Amino acid sequence: MIMNFGFSYIGLIYLAMLFIPNVFWIKNKPDGYDKSVKTENKMLKIFESIGQIFVTCIVLVFKDFNVKFGSLWIIWLILSFLFMMLYEIYWVKYFKSKKTMEDFYSSLLGIPVAGATLPCISFLILGIYGKNILLIIAVIILSIGHIGIHINHKKELIKFI
Prior knowledge:
Blueprint: H1 9-26, H2 33-37, H3 42-61, H4 74-96, H5 101-104, H6 114-129, H7 133-160
Helix pairs in contact: 1-3, 1-4, 3-7, 4-6, 6-7
């Protein structure tokens, strides 16, 4: 498995798809979100932060994620992109909602805590497409933290409902 350094325009597109909705979310946080962040598991937060840094860097500096026509591997890229599109649909659903904590930690098509799970799945599949073990490892680290934090927040909500 040879990894090739070089700029990944696919990585840039994915990061834009990830970050742009989050910029709008800053002005549309659900009530009680800032309070819930204070109770986050510190170890999960460390995993999430390390994973975010490595995923962001890796998807930009390896050209292995760019489109490779003429290979059946492109099916992995299409699948990965479909999960990113579901992530965008999750955000549309959230922004059209009442923007409650329940809305923020909602599922989409049976996928729990979709706002955390969908991009992790997408980037994991992108790592498979690019045959890039570094991205796969980074996404696993990110997923442990990011999905774990969201699941814990969802569990806290269930206690209060």
